[in-house]
Amino acid sequence: MINFSNSLGFDILIDDVVLDWFCLINTSRVGPKTFWTLMKTYKTAKESLKHVANPFPKSSAEKILRSANCDIILANESSFPKGLRRSCFCPPMLYYKGDKSILSKKKIAIIGARNASISGMSIAKNLASKLSDKFAIVSGLAKGIDSSAHFGSLSIPENGAAIAVLPTGINKVYPKENTDLYEKIAKFGILLTEVAPNSGPDLGMFQARNRIISLLADGMIIIEAAAKSGTLATAKAALDVGCEVMVVPGSPIDPRSFGSNLLIKNGATLVQNHVDILEVLKFEENFKQPEVPDQTVIIDEDRDTDNLRDRVLSLLSTKAVSLDEIAYNANLPIQQLLCVISELEILGKIVKHATNEVSLA
Fold first, then answer.
1. Is residue 124 over pLDDT 80?
2. Which pLDDT tens digit goes with each residue over 36-60?
3. Least buried of 98, 109, 317, 332, by fewest C-beta within 10 Å?
C-alpha cells in the first residue's frame, strides 16, 4: 500500500511498480483480462509496457497519482481481497479511502432498486444494522437500497462495517447527493474502486462495480430487483461464483420486485429477517427465531397498539396521503401499518380512498 496524498506539499516518491501497473492497466485496450495475460507472458508490468501500443504516459500517471488523495492495494499484496482473485477479470489495483482492515472481515452485500419503496429501504437499513456487528456490509453507494444499507452499516460506527464500491474514480462522488454519506464511509468504513482517479461513471464502470461486489461478498441479499436490472445481473454473477444469494420477497404486483421474486422462484433462498441470514450462512451463535420474523426485519421492538394508532392519526389530516408516505413518516413497516389502518377504518376514524390513500374521517 502506498499513500500519494500529501497536504503539506512535500515531494513524494511514487513506487515504480505501482506506476508501471497503473500505466499498463490504463493503456487503451488493456483491461484486467489483457493485463494478466501480458503479466503471465512478460512477468512484469515494466516489461509488458514495451509490448503494447501507445502505453499510458508515466508523466501523466504520476500527476494523477499525486493528486488522487487515496491509497492503493495491488493484487499481489496480502491485504488484497482474496475473493477478487477468483475471476480472470480481477482488477490489478484497487484505490481506496478508509480502513483497509475491514476487507479482512466476512462480507454480506445488500443491493437493490434505486427507486426503492420506503418499506424496502427500511428493510435494507435494519438488516445492515443488525448484521454489522458480525459482517462488513457491501453495497454500491447508489440511491435507494444501497444508500439505506450503508446507513444501516454505519449505525454503530465503531463496528467498522461499511464497504462502498464505487463506479467512479475514488475522488468522484456519484450520485452527488450522497456526498455526506461518502465522507462518513471514508471516516468509519472504506470506499473502494478499480476505476482510475478523476474518472466519471459510464456503463462499463457500473458493470465493473457490480462485478467487484459479487466477488467480494460471502453472501448477497437482494431487496427489490426489477426484471431487467443491474441488481439482477449482479445476483446472477454472484451465483456464478458460488456466492449464497438470499432474497427478501416483494409484492407480486410491484415491478420493483419482479426480478427478486423470480430469483426465489428459481431457487434463491427466501429470507425475512437477520436470523434467517445468519442461519443460511451457518454463522455460529445461538439462534433464536423471532416470534414475528417478517416484522423484525424493519422494526426494533413490539410497540403498543394504542400508541401506534395515535402515531398514525397524528400524521393524518382531511387531505388524503399515500400509505408509503405514512409508513415512512411513522417509521413503520408497511405490513404493520396496514393492520393499524384496518383497525382505524373499523373504528371510523379514517377514510380509505380508492387511490390507496387515507385521510381523517
1. yes
2. 999 999 999 999 999 999 999 999 9
3. 317
Residue 46, amino acid: K
Tell me the backbone φ, ψ of residue 313, rounded to 5 degrees: -60, -35
**Does CATH place domain 305-360 in 1.10.10.10?**
yes
Residue type, 298: I
Rounded CA-CA distance 42/314 in Å is 71
What's residue 305's pLDDT?
65
Residue range 87-120, pLDDT digits in tens: 889 999 999 999 999 999 999 999 999 999 988 9
- Containing 159, the helix (H) or strand (E) segment is none
DSSP state of 88: T
For residues 281 and 221, is the Cβ–Cβ distance under 8 A?
Answer: no
Which amino acid type is present at position 88? C
Can you point out the beta strands (E) in the chain?
Answer: 2-3, 71-74, 93-98, 107-112, 136-139, 162-165, 190-193, 219-223, 244-248, 269-270, 321-322, 350-352, 357-360
Same fold, 100-287 and 305-360: no
Amino acid 297: pLDDT: 36
Q: How does DSSP classify residue 67?
A: T
Name the grid cell of 79: 491485504
Q: What is the pLDDT of residues 126-161, one digit of tens each?
A: 999 999 999 999 999 999 999 999 999 999 999 999
Locate the domains of the chain by residue range. Answer: 2-67, 100-287, 305-360
Q: What is the pTM of this model?
A: 0.77
Whether 107 contacts 135, CB under 8 Å = yes
What CATH code would you report for 100-287?
Answer: 3.40.50.450
Cα three-residue angle 326-156-197, rounded to 5 degrees: 95
